[in-house]
């Protein structure tokens, strides 16, 4: 399975939205640590199979995916954020999150390219060639982001606000573990990518006692 296909398979997650509720506890006035969960959304992509020894280079168009965000291991993330004392509405965040992707092999796709040296241009079930493709051990994304926040419902004990809508933009690296079964043979490996852009949007809540 090509490295480009793996990146294409996860592109839907990066372009989609993640709905999160964060739990955070201020360590000091300008630092926060958070653990969060959520749901990822997918979009159809192309998936490419390259087997030079068999003279095979196939691209499957319109591959759909499941996310299984709430099945073990669930979608989760960890974030450490530092807000500047002089500008408490601006900060930087180191963020890590983990999600999954599973190709729907029972769906019909369009295949083009060559298979065993023979030109291919056909409709087929993805599972007729690729019985399984997933990144179930995780698409693991580590990023550094610039963050801005609003500070709503301020109190004496929570001067930065009980409700803090935030938005961020930054970049980082993906570390993935794709697994595939192709014509009965199983393949798996870890792989990384170059720099990947990231955008984030969500709220942070502070509850009585400092947790939220």
Question: Could you walk me through the main structural features you see in this protein, from its secondary elements to its overall organization?
Answer:
The protein has one helix and 16 strands. With about 210 residues, the chain is mainly beta. The protein has one domain (about 5-210). The strands form four sheets. A seven-stranded mixed beta barrel has the order 1-2-6-7-12-13-16. It is elongated, with a radius of gyration of 21 Å.
Name some characteristics of this structure.
212 residues; mainly beta
Summed up, the helix count is 1
Read across the widest sheet, the strand sequence of neighbours is: 1-2-6-7-12-13-16
- What string, H for helix and E for strand, traces the elements in order? HEEEEEEEEEEEEEEEE
Helix content: under 10%
Stretches where pLDDT falls below 50 for ≥5 residues? 2-29
Q: How many domains?
A: 1
Reconstruct the topology from this structure.
Blueprint: H1 3-15, E1 19-28, E2 31-39, E3 45-51, E4 56-63, E5 65-66, E6 76-83, E7 90-99, E8 102-103, E9 108-115, E10 118-125, E11 130-134, E12 139-149, E13 163-176, E14 179-182, E15 185-188, E16 191-205
How is this structure best summarized?
With 212 residues, this protein is mostly beta strands. It is 6% helix and 59% strand.
């Amino acid at each position: 399975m090509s490295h480009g296909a793996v990146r294409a398979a996860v592109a839907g997650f990066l372009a989609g939205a993640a709905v999160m509720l964060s739990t955070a506890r201020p360590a000091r006035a300008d630092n926060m640590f958070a653990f969060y969960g959520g749901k990822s959304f997918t979009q159809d992509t192309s998936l490419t199979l390259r087997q030079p020894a068999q003279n095979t280079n196939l691209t499957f168009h319109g591959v759909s995916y499941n996310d299984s965000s709430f099945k073990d291991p669930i979608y989760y993330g960890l974030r450490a954020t530092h807000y500047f004392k002089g500008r408490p509405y601006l900060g930087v965040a180191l963020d890590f999150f983990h999600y999954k992707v599973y190709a729907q092999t029972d769906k019909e796709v369009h295949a083009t390219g060559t298979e065993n040296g023979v030109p291919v241009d056909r409709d087929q079930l993805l599972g007729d060639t690729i019985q399984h493709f997933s990144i179930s051990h995780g698409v693991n994304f580590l990023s550094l982001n610039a963050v801005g926040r609003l500070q709503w419902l301020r109190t004496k004990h929570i001067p930065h606000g009980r409700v803090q809508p935030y938005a961020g933009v930054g970049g980082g690296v993906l570390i993935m573990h794709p697994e595939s079964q192709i014509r009965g043979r199983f393949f798996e490996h870890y792989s990384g990518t170059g720099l990947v852009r990231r955008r984030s949007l969500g709220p942070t809540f502070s509850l009585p006692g400092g947790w939220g």
